[in-house]
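Lab notebook page, bench 4
Experiment: in silico fold of construct C2
Operator: M.H.
Input chain length: 226 residues
Purpose: comparison with the prior construct
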Amino acid sequence: MTDWYYATADRQRHGPLRAEQLRALAMSGAIDAQTLVWREGEPGWRALHAFAAELELPAAPPPLPATAAPAVAMASAPRPGMSGVVIALLIVVGGMFALAVLGILAAIAVPAYNDYTLRAQATSAIVQAKALQVQVAEFVAVNGRCPTNDDEDFGTPESYAGAGLARVEFGEFEDSDLGGLEATLAAPGKAALDGKALWLEYHPDRSGWECSSEVEDRHLPVDCRG
């Protein structure tokens, strides 16, 4: 009686088996025609189908001839690109650049906006003061001199206080034969304007007015700048 052995795909050897036991395994599908088997007298392991006649197994087609492996479409190689680290770095650099630009714009825009608001506030106060020019000019035309706060129809300096003005004084200016008014600006919290003087000088000979102030020119309308 010949002993048979077979090997599984994990290279484990099984046996010894009698011929009928090996045949039963083949008939049940537990092993197939390509399973390697060996029996005494064989120089090496051979596929089961080589012993089909000896084991009285149904004829099995021979193994397919080796063929070239089907061509596999190669996916196009990815185009070279930037790594995630480089992209992240560029994002960080871009963000820093954007912040720097915003910082520069803010450094320019904020002072410009502050100057604009101060100039608008000063202009509003000056407009209020200029509204008194007609009264002063009429007084000069009738009386030949500049009015003071003590004259009829003129109030105390504080009586002219209002939005943007703290007080208004009428009279002649020192070292000058010209008269007019001196208005003190009121802008709480705005050191560039608050408490600063505005002068409106009247020139009767040409019925003109000259505007000046101790406020910085950049915070004044053009016609009041020195």
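Observations: Residues 124 and 164 are 7 Å apart (CA to CA). The chain has three helices and eight strands.
Next step: discuss at group meeting.
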